[in-house]
């Protein structure tokens, strides 16, 4: 239960020298990083699902409700990121408020979030690449786009088993190479990718707006069927729960604190700015989607955007959307790799993981060895493990981190009430408590198998902590030496 003092954390943030991360990010870069991971394929699929099954055209209100729920946690992240501008995100915040054991749990939990998330996205990226290439008559042998545990039926009726998912592995390794070379270069690449996929979303909104049929908005809030969550006001709330996970990702911005110029100002800008920009885009996207086609047409349809595009004369938009998904997934993988390596960097600096994870490249000033190790592991995972195994593990890991950060803000306000804060979460403890409640409700809605996988992962993490981390903890060794 040893805790890091606020003074010690600030001293770490002020460190300079060969083994410190280079500050090269500004507020715009952080907003782009946040948007890069928030806008993924979920926007193009979950919006239609929530509209068809829960909220109807009022899915736009579901986006607002989900954004408000995320904002509770985002405000808490913003206060911590400005107060303690070091890499590590929720891991570091937990170390300062709840102690080393809880810090390890949340750090290990973040590893689950980022690594499994990156592998999952890489596998989906591979599937969308096949669709995109297929539109132009280009085909990759089926054995090279599946794991050994998967099989597929070919056009001639025969069945073929997978060997390895080559595209998934290659995209992870390519992004790993970019991340290894430096945060500034990664930020530029991410900014380009974000610009491309935001452009596609804006094009869909702008072109689709002209063909909106106002009759599709009647009724805007369909009458409840008698079952909670099926339309009416309860449907808006259930729809918010469905699309809540579209917003997950702004927390990764907090892992960039030690590589940010003037983090006291820019970290809140990056965290809250990315959430605000995405909320506006998502509401407009949902408005156009449900205006082009009646929400009932999205029922049991995995590609609702394709249904909406059929209502316009722009058939090429379908290819553009797939391209946007590919580009969007690329930036998600990049940001996940950035976030994971920075969490490992902080844990290694504290002695809880071997020194290799905090060793910086002499030229790039990045944890290059750590990034290469993690990237290689994730590439193998993406190449040889089927996507069905990972499920919703990413979501539960993120929500647990949110709960810890919201709880940490309340504890820090009590233990260090006079610490100078360039950004303060408003209405404490109301906002943090609301953040905790929203996250716990979302966690409770996940399947029990997801909880079981989380518990198994945490058990493995505790074994590593007691076998290595606790014995090598620099904070513990310093206190025992004193």
From TrEMBL:
InterPro entries: AA/rel_permease1. Gene3D superfamilies: Amino acid/polyamine transporter I. It comes from Hymenobacter ruricola. Pfam families: AA_permease_2. This is Amino acid permease. Coiled coil: none annotated. It is found in: Membrane. The keyword Hydrolase does not apply. It is a multi-pass membrane protein. The chain crosses the membrane at residues 30-52, 58-80, 101-125, 160-180, 187-212, 232-257, 269-293, 313-339, 371-390, 396-413, 425-444, 450-468. Keywords: Membrane, Transmembrane, Transmembrane helix, Transport. The keyword Nucleus does not apply.
């Amino acid at each position: 239960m040893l805790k890091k003092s606020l003074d010690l954390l600030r001293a770490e943030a002020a460190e300079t020298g060969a083994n410190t991360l280079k500050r090269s990010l500004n507020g715009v870069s952080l907003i782009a990083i946040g948007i890069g991971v928030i806008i993924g394929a979920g926007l193009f699929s979950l919006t239609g699902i929530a509209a068809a099954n829960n909220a109807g055209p009022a899915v736009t209100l579901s986006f607002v409700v989900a954004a408000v729920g995320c904002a509770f946690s985002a405000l808490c992240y913003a206060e911590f990121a400005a107060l303690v501008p070091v890499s590590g995100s929720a891991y570091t915040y937990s170390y300062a408020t709840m102690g080393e054991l809880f810090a390890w749990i949340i750090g290990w939990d973040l590893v689950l979030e980022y690594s499994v998330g990156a592998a999952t996205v890489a596998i989906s990226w591979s599937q969308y690449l096949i669709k995109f290439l297929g539109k132009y008559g280009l085909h990759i042998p089926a054995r090279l786009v599946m794991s050994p545990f998967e099989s597929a039926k070919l056009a001639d009726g025969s069945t073929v088993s997978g060997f390895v998912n080559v595209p998934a592995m290659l995209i992870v390794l390519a992004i790993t190479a970019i991340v290894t070379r430096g945060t500034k270069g990664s930020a530029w690449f991410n900014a380009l990718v974000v610009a491309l996929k935001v452009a596609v979303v804006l094009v869909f909104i702008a072109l689709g707006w002209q063909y909106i049929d106002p009759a599709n908005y009647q009724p805007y809030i369909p009458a409840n069927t008698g079952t909670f969550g099926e339309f009416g006001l309860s449907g808006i709330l259930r729809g918010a729960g469905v699309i809540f996970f579209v917003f997950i990702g702004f927390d990764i911005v907090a892992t960039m604190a030690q590589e940010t110029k003037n983090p006291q100002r820019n970290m809140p800008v990056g965290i809250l700015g990315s959430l605000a920009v995405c909320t506006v885009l998502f509401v407009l996207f949902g408005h156009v989607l449900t205006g082009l086609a009646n929400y009932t047409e999205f029922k049991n349809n995995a590609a609702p955007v394709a249904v909406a595009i059929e209502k316009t004369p722009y058939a090429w938009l379908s290819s553009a959307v797939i391209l946007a998904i590919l580009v969007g997934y690329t930036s998600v993988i990049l940001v996940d790799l950035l976030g994971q390596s920075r969490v490992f960097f902080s844990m290694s600096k504290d002695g809880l993981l071997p020194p290799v994870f905090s060793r910086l490249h002499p030229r790039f000033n990045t944890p290059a060895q750590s990034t290469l190790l993690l990237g290689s592991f994730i590439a193998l995972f993406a190449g040889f493990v089927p996507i069905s195994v990972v499920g919703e593990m990413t979501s539960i890991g993120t929500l647990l981190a949110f709960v810890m950060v919201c709880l940490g803000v309340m504890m820090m306000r009590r233990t260090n009430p006079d610490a100078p804060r360039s950004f303060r979460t408003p209405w404490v403890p109301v906002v943090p408590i609301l953040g905790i409640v929203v996250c716990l409700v979302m966690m409770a809605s996940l399947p029990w198998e997801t909880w079981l996988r989380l518990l198994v992962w945490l058990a493995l993490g505790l074994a590593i902590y007691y076998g290595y981390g606790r014995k090598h903890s620099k904070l513990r060794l310093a206190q025992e030496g004193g």
